[in-house]
Amino acid sequence: MVNALRHPYVKPVWAILRIGLGYIWLNAALEKLGAFPVYVGAKAGTAVTGYLQGALAQSSGAHAQVTAEWAWLVHVLFLPTAGFWSIVVTFGELACGIGLILGVFTGTALIGALVMNLAYMLSGSATVNPAMFTLEVIMLAIGPAVAYWGLDHWAFHDWAGRRLLFHPAPNIPKAANSHPEIPAPSSPRRTA
């Protein structure tokens, strides 16, 4: 099944889906940067504090949307440092959006997007996040085929036997007696 999803005819479809997903992340980051003071400005963390308090409010009742463990983590770790997480999320969304649109460091961008979507879903936000999460998992499983129509393809593709970036060192055989203190091993000769 996965091989069928890596077929050359399907690669343009993955490129369109990857770019669309990147647009969603980039748009979310630009909205946060547009509301400058409450996300990354002087009042950084104000909006995130409200979001996290909403998550805590959903952790009680007969049909809680947020688990007690996640609520504890929100209360102990995320709320006290909301300003820091506001900046991390804003620039994380921006990096994921740019990475997915350009197809550069696609795997890293997908993992970052996956982690943020998981955090949003655990906080009780279930709008488009489950669909995005599912698409990101599928794209990670497919691997390099998703980045075929992107900068990763050009950076990591084997062009005429030479890689442009991150090429491995040439395979140079070591001499039998490369270390002066260690004698060369003697191998028994076979006679026919």
User: What is the β-strand count?
Assistant: 2
Q: Which regions have little confidence, pLDDT < 50, spanning 5+ residues? A: none
Rg result? 24 Å
Instruction: Tell me the strand order in the biggest sheet.
Output: 1-2
**Broad shape:** globular
What's the pLDDT, averaged over the residues? 85
What kind of oligomer do you see? single chain
Organism: Sulfobacillus harzensis
Transmembrane segments: 12-30, 70-91, 98-120, 132-151
Keywords: Membrane, Transmembrane, Transmembrane helix
Protein name: DoxX family protein
Description:
The protein has one domain. It has nine helices and two strands. It is mostly helical and 192 residues long. The chain has a two-stranded antiparallel sheet with strand order 1-2. Helix content is 59%, strand content 2%. The longest helix has 24 residues.
Which descriptors would you attach to this protein?
192 residues, mainly alpha, two-stranded antiparallel sheet, 9 helices, globular
Task: Report a brief summary of the structure.
With 192 residues, this protein is mainly alpha-helical.
Topology:
Blueprint: H1 2-5, H2 11-34, H3 36-39, H4 46-57, H5 68-78, H6 82-102, H7 106-122, H8 129-142, H9 151-156, E1 158-159, E2 162-163
Antiparallel strand pairs: 1-2
Helix pairs in contact: 2-6, 4-6, 6-7, 7-8
Transmembrane segments: 12-30, 70-91, 98-120, 132-151
Protein name: DoxX family protein
Keywords: Membrane, Transmembrane, Transmembrane helix
